[in-house]
Amino acid sequence: MPQLHVVGEDPTARTHLRIALDLAASQIPVLPLRAGKIPFGNCRRCADNACGGRPNMKSAGPCTCPAPCHAWAAATTDPDVIQSGLWRRAWLRATAVAYHPGGAGLTVVDLDNADAITWARENLPPTQTVPTTRGEHWLYLGRMQSANAVRPGVDIKSTMAYARWRGFGTGTMADLPEAVRALAVKEPTVRPTPQAVTVPAGGGECRHHTPSYLDRGIAMAEERITEARSAIHTTVYRTFLAVLSAHGRCGCLTDTHIARLFTAAQAKGESPRHCTDAWVNARTRLGL
């Protein structure tokens, strides 16, 4: 273990530095955080954001330094950098240690309150769990794009993001599930219109021959929504998209069919507004 004399006798700084070096030895890129969970720059030119990076320093700024120096981009596993003179004053002022989950091949599902934790327990596979001030961090093995506010009280921190280190927590880390990846899927941002829930009849030649063909398709869509155990909003949107791809252009869909799909979605917790948004977005994607 390298010597910790760079931070003198300050016990807090020594603790932070020791944690950072231990994490770096496990190939987890680290960086110091100052008050307000804000990172430092990693060079004098960037001290206190003097280079003009974003004030909250949550993404790489327009710095002209030789090395990246903002937030996740400053995270490193190099013990010489972590103990260097450039970081010495940072550790003396640091209030916490942060890490770059994506750089370590990890994804953090940040659950900010009790409702978010309840949702995760009902919809995500168990994994390593770390208590936070207001909620929990759920850690999965695998990286993905980061995204904020994917659900009420739920953020995803992985690539191009940092998270405060709060310890190893409990449980066995699971592989990153599709249910978490699906949370970051963005749908077209088309606003609903008052007449959005109907498909005009007569849009093309009917390919279904008998009503039973369409009924089976609607029943299968209802079953897919009803059996979903995670990523409900994404499942509803993709199911609506599939129904419209098969039945949206011939004019066979009626308000009764659409009502069946909306009823199944709302039984899984979707609001009428979310149903309408998903239906309109699916129609827009298909050019209907």
CA-atom Rg in angstroms: 25 Å
Helix content estimate: 25-40%
Low-confidence stretches: 53-62, 188-204
Number of domains: 3
Which word captures the global form? elongated
How many helix segments?
9
Query: What separation lies between the terminal Cα atoms?
Result: 64 Å
Percent range for β-strand residues? 5-15%
H-E order: HEEHHEEHEEEEEEHHHHH
Brief synopsis:
The protein has 9 helices and 10 strands. It has 288 residues and is an alpha+beta fold. It folds into 3 domains: 5-98, no CATH class; 102-178, no CATH class; 211-286, no CATH class.
List strands and helices in order, with pairings.
Elements: H1 11-25, E1 30-34, E2 38-39, H2 79-82, H3 85-93, E3 96-99, E4 106-111, H4 114-123, E5 128-131, E6 136-141, E7 147-151, E8 154-157, E9 163-164, E10 174-175, H5 178-183, H6 211-227, H7 232-247, H8 255-267, H9 272-286
Parallel strand pairs: 6-10
Antiparallel strand pairs: 1-2, 1-3, 3-9, 4-6, 4-8, 5-6, 7-8
Helix pairs in contact: 6-7, 6-8, 7-9
Report on this model:
The protein has helices spanning 11-25, 79-82, 85-93, 114-123, 178-183, 211-227, 232-247, 255-267, 272-286; strands at residues 30-34, 38-39, 96-99, 106-111, 128-131, 136-141, 147-151, 154-157, 163-164, 174-175. It is α+β, with helices and mostly antiparallel strands and 288 residues long. It has three domains: 5-98, no CATH class; 102-178, no CATH class; 211-286, no CATH class. Strands 4, 5, 6, 7, 8 and 10 form a six-stranded mixed β-sheet that branches. A four-stranded antiparallel β-sheet has the order 2-1-3-9. Strand 5 (128-131) and strand 6 form a beta hairpin. The longest helix is centred in the last third of the chain and has 17 residues, at 211-227. The N and C termini lie far apart (64 Å).
